[in-house]
């Protein structure tokens, strides 16, 4: 039987990436994700991989792009300000339809911010981040086990869709230790990469990887192609988890660390006889609108909880589409909500049960 | 039962290691565990702390709220964490470095001159193990042998000569609270 090991989230990501076939890592240190780089520096050379600490984040992301062009499994990781520096490269990678995995263990912002846990990079991660009409697939683990598991998915989906995938965590997830059963190592890439620029070979035409479409007609065709890809992602690869939500009248929506806090709050609410639940998006893009809308149609009311001043709540409101009410509770700047405070918010919504429900926020018409 | 614990002291007193050993030991016993450190500027010379949850059920929040127990190894840690304990919680105080106790009357406080006891045993570094032994004596949430088993995994083989002194410290810490009367 595979043994449980006690690992930090950052280390679990690194080990799982290596097991998923990642052989190239380019990055630059920043707290709170340094254990990830350190682990890669120690262990990638042991499997004939390349760890390179670049001169800057901009250098790192462009090295990622170069390695991705060859079809290699490649990743980088950083936090907040470092991810901002990488946005130009990420846009180019998306525009060139290259697979790569980018890990953001969020720290507070804007600007230099601080190293405490936050979820304030949601917009940047889920809405594009760099210039142009593109999306990343964004995976949001909420435990060390899930951090390991989702790394396999990240590399597989990056290859499948030829699109960068972001794994979005925070300081809590990166720094905490939990038992983890590491997935078995995987050799070779699952997807044939005929497009990789590894030489012309016997092909009649040279291979070209580019994001330059100077004619609007061609550029539009390409943008439509990307949009179709994202629609396929939404159809096939939207992931979420429900916790005690089946009969819930009040549903919290939260991801990552906030979801763990909400689980505790939901348990407390249930102990008090309040029918509370949780819908936890695992993919932030594509966003799990369908289960949220379905619950809204059944009359559930929503409370979005984030470690920010409110970003994902926009997507929850779009998903609910006026069918019910959507409240928000968040802490920011590195402060972490206490589950008892989330419980108070749930109780507040419960106390408003009689009287105005959906009617004040657009109604169900 | 969910045990939510804080281990706090100066950097270098072994609070991070103590927490990791507890998490590891809990895992070895098949329990659900989570360990989370303070990782900010505290790491650089000031106070350091970590939070550990050991539970029979899956752990919702890895962040500890209303801790059921706290081991404090220095004065600032006593002042910071004593007020956070849940009523009925266990507060273990390293009286070698801390003067006084918390004014709270709704928690169980145990004072132990852990540094002095560790010195008597010939190794100041096991002061943390005396206090951990006491916590195990009070709550029985894990077994001493599991902590030793965890140490065996965490320490490199050439340090395994330290296992015995750690075991003794844990045992003496446990006896400290189980032999004397707890009425006071």
UniProtKB/TrEMBL annotation, chain A:
<feature type="domain" description="Pyruvate flavodoxin/ferredoxin oxidoreductase pyrimidine binding">
    <location>
        <begin position="15"/>
        <end position="230"/>
    </location>
</feature>
<dbReference type="Pfam" id="PF01855">
    <property type="entry name" value="POR_N"/>
</dbReference>
<dbReference type="InterPro" id="IPR009014">
    <property type="entry name" value="Transketo_C/PFOR_II"/>
</dbReference>
<keyword id="KW-0560">Oxidoreductase</keyword>
<dbReference type="InterPro" id="IPR033412">
    <property type="entry name" value="PFOR_II"/>
</dbReference>
<dbReference type="InterPro" id="IPR052368">
    <property type="entry name" value="2-oxoacid_oxidoreductase"/>
</dbReference>
<dbReference type="GO" id="GO:0016491">
    <property type="term" value="F:oxidoreductase activity"/>
</dbReference>
<feature type="domain" description="Pyruvate:ferredoxin oxidoreductase core">
    <location>
        <begin position="248"/>
        <end position="342"/>
    </location>
</feature>
<dbReference type="Pfam" id="PF17147">
    <property type="entry name" value="PFOR_II"/>
</dbReference>
<dbReference type="InterPro" id="IPR002880">
    <property type="entry name" value="Pyrv_Fd/Flavodoxin_OxRdtase_N"/>
</dbReference>
<protein>
    <submittedName>
        <fullName>3-methyl-2-oxobutanoate dehydrogenase subunit VorB</fullName>
    </submittedName>
</protein>
<dbReference type="InterPro" id="IPR029061">
    <property type="entry name" value="THDP-binding"/>
</dbReference>
UniProtKB/TrEMBL annotation, chain B:
<protein>
    <submittedName>
        <fullName>2-oxoacid:ferredoxin oxidoreductase subunit gamma</fullName>
    </submittedName>
</protein>
<keyword id="KW-0560">Oxidoreductase</keyword>
<keyword id="KW-0812">Transmembrane</keyword>
<dbReference type="Pfam" id="PF01558">
    <property type="entry name" value="POR"/>
</dbReference>
<keyword id="KW-1133">Transmembrane helix</keyword>
<feature type="domain" description="Pyruvate/ketoisovalerate oxidoreductase catalytic">
    <location>
        <begin position="11"/>
        <end position="175"/>
    </location>
</feature>
<dbReference type="InterPro" id="IPR002869">
    <property type="entry name" value="Pyrv_flavodox_OxRed_cen"/>
</dbReference>
<dbReference type="InterPro" id="IPR019752">
    <property type="entry name" value="Pyrv/ketoisovalerate_OxRed_cat"/>
</dbReference>
<keyword id="KW-0472">Membrane</keyword>
<dbReference type="GO" id="GO:0016903">
    <property type="term" value="F:oxidoreductase activity, acting on the aldehyde or oxo group of donors"/>
</dbReference>
<dbReference type="InterPro" id="IPR052554">
    <property type="entry name" value="2-oxoglutarate_synth_KorC"/>
</dbReference>
<feature type="transmembrane region" description="Helical">
    <location>
        <begin position="129"/>
        <end position="151"/>
    </location>
</feature>
């Amino acid at each position: 039987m595979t043994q449980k090991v006690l690992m930090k989230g950052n280390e679990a990501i690194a080990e799982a990436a290596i097991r998923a076939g990642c052989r190239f890592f380019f990055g630059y240190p920043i707290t709170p994700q340094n254990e990830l780089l350190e682990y890669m520096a120690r262990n990638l050379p042991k499997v004939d991989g390349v760890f390179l600490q670049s001169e800057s984040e901009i250098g790192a992301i462009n090295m990622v792009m170069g390695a991705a062009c060859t079809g290699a499994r490649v990743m980088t990781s950083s936090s907040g300000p470092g991810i901002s520096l990488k946005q130009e490269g990420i846009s180019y990678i998306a525009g060139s339809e290259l697979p790569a995995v980018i890990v953001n263990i969020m720290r507070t912002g804007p600007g230099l911010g601080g190293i405490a846990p936050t979820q304030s990079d949601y917009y940047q991660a889920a809405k594009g981040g760099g210039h142009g009409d593109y999306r990343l697939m964004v995976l949001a683990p909420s435990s060390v086990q899930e951090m390991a598991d989702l790394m396999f998915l990240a590399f597989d989906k990056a290859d499948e869709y030829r699109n960068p995938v972001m794994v979005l965590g925070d300081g809590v997830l990166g720094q905490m230790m939990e038992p983890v059963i590491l997935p078995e190592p995987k050799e070779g890439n699952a997807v044939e990469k005929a497009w990789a620029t590894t030489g012309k070979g016997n092909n009649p035409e040279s291979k070209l990887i580019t994001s330059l479409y100077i004619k609007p007609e061609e550029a539009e065709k390409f943008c439509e192609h990307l949009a179709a890809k994202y629609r396929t992602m939404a159809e096939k690869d939207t992931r979420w988890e429900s916790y005690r939500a089946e009969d819930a009248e009040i549903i919290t929506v939260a991801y990552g660390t906030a979801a763990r806090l909400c689980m505790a709050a939901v348990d407390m609410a249930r102990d008090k006889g309040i029918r509370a639940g949780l819908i936890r998006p695992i993919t932030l893009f594509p966003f799990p609108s369908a289960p949220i809308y379905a619950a809204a149609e059944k009359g559930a009311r929503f409370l979005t909880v984030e470690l920010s001043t409110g970003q994902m709540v926009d997507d929850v409101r779009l998903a609910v589409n006026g069918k019910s009410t959507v409240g928000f509770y968040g802490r920011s700047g590195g402060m972490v909500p206490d589950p008892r405070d989330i419980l108070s918010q749930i109780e507040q919504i419960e106390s408003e049960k009689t009287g105005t429900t959906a009617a004040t926020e657009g109604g169900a018409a | 039962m969910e045990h939510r614990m804080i281990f706090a002291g100066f950097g270098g007193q072994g609070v991070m290691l103590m927490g990791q050993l507890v998490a590891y030991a809990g895992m070895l016993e098949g329990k659900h565990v989570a360990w989370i450190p303070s990782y900010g500027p505290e790491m650089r010379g000031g106070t350091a702390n970590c939070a550990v949850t050991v539970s029979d059920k899956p752990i919702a929040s890895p962040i500890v709220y209303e801790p059921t127990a706290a081991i404090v190894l220095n004065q600032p840690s006593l002042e910071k964490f004593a007020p956070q304990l849940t009523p009925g919680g266990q507060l273990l105080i390293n009286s070698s470095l801390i003067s006084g106790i918390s004014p709270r009357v709704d928690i169980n406080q145990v004072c132990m001159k852990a540094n002095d006891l560790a010195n008597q045993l010939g190794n100041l570094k096991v002061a943390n193990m005396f206090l951990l032994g006491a916590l195990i004596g009070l709550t029985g949430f894990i077994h001493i042998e599991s902590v030793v088993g965890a140490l065996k995994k965490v320490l490199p083989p050439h340090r395994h000569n330290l296992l015995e002194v750690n075991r003794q410290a844990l045992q003496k810490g446990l006896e400290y609270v189980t032999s004397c009367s707890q009425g006071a």
